[in-house]
Amino acid sequence: MFQLDPIAALATAPGIGAIAVIRVSGEGAIELTSRMFRGKELTQQASHTAHFGTLRNRPDETGNASIIDEVLVTVFRAPKSFTKEDVVEISCHGSEFIIQQILRRLTQEGARLAKPGEFTQRAFLNGQFDLVQAEAVADLIASDSDASHRAALTQLRGGFSKQLKVLRQQLIDFVALVELELDFGEEDVEFAHRDRLRQLMLDIRRALHPLIDSFSTGNAIKNGVPTVIVGKPNAGKSTLLNALLNEEKAIVSDIPGTTRDVIEDELFIEGIRFRLIDTAGLRQATDRIEAIGIERTQQKMRDAALVVYLFDGKNIELNELQTALTEVRESGKPYLLVGNKLDAIDDHKRQALETVAGESIVWISAAKQTHLEELKAALSARVRTDAAVQTGSAVVTNARHYDHLTATDEALARAISGLDTNVTPDWLAMDLRVALQHLGEITGEITTDDLLESIFSKFCIGK
């Protein structure tokens, strides 16, 4: 553990509020704050104690040190702080003027303004947590749904990291033996038992694949589940969007082809954020502009995590539904079949449509806003079928992690192929080193300055 030069920043959201918190961390943080504080002598106070007093400007010519604000100062002594350095948190009134005055005084006393994510970066450098956990801090701050909160919290607690560290250590032990063989190349010795090495690599790949496969779910959890509403013109897509959002987001008209561009908004259902996307109706376009809208619809279907196929239960023919369902199923995307205008069809027509579909249909009336809660429950259930979402187990939400996991898996696959063809130990060691490199870069056991700068520059200033 080491202490760097003192840094300071506003730790709460900028803007006028009742209270603002300014954080100071680094060597001399307590001493420099004490020089501008009137109350108890901070340098003599125990860790994790709070003290009321005033912060003062530097004395003027007459020796008068004017008051900036009445504050509550909390002292955290190294290593029992977020950064494992000496830390002071100053709770002041949330005036922008007061905040700037305090930051100015802190810089006068020797602190510098913190860079984005510098507090968390110091916590990482001082061994408070690994790089996955550090990135989870940013995800936790940005979480806006129950699912994204749970995913970030799981990573912050180290569940994902522990899995990777165990796998990496097992691989390191074998790589050391393979490297040892290189030192005895002329003696044709084998320290790393090939069958055991193969089994280990297979076991690691089996552990990696669920993590790699979870990225699509994790990305949806982090950024919202892209849910595209598709169907023929006048099926009621825009009416449904407006009803779910409880506002007039999309233009509703009896004229086919009214929606010509993509309309998006967000809806939270049972702690999951859905990015609802209303699209142009799927049909043969009548003009160039509508054709562009339909092409965008098809692109959104390809990008979606969930497709809601909405059809007009009153006017659709049985063969039309069958054809439409074939197209939706061929897209390979998870989908939900929703029948609109339930109030305008009889039981015979409804049963016939359900028979043709061969699966359950969620029946609603978008115009009358009936059965919308059933639709919301079905949307939530469709997402929650993923075991990771239900159990809170490790889910990959970070594209950087996904890229390194994929590269690790590819390197291990090459190494296994090399075993099959009896490659020399130096070639085998090369692929194993690549796998170790990528696993190490995920958790931060292997880092570069550029990598750290890229990661922490995305944090807010006070974190």
From TrEMBL:
Protein name in UniProt: tRNA modification GTPase MnmE
Cellular-component GO terms for this entry: cytosol
Cross-referenced PANTHER family: TRNA MODIFICATION GTPASE GTPBP3, TRNA MODIFICATION GTPASE GTPBP3, MITOCHONDRIAL
Binding-site list for Mg(2+): S238, T259
Organism superkingdom: Bacteria
Function comment: Exhibits a very high intrinsic GTPase hydrolysis rate. Involved in the addition of a carboxymethylaminomethyl (cmnm) group at the wobble position (U34) of certain tRNAs, forming tRNA-cmnm(5)s(2)U34.
CDD domains (UniProt xref): trmE, TrmE_N
Keyword Membrane tagged: no
Molecular functions per Gene Ontology: GTP binding; GTPase activity; identical protein binding; metal ion binding
Family statement drawn from the similarity comment of this UniProt entry: Belongs to the TRAFAC class TrmE-Era-EngA-EngB-Septin-like GTPase superfamily. TrmE GTPase family.
Signal sequence, renumbered to the chain: none
Cofactor: how bound: Binds 1 potassium ion per subunit.
EC number of the protein: 3.6.-.-
UniProt-annotated binding residues for K(+): N234, S253, I255, T258
Alphabetical keyword list: Cytoplasm, GTP-binding, Hydrolase, Magnesium, Metal-binding, Nucleotide-binding, Potassium, tRNA processing
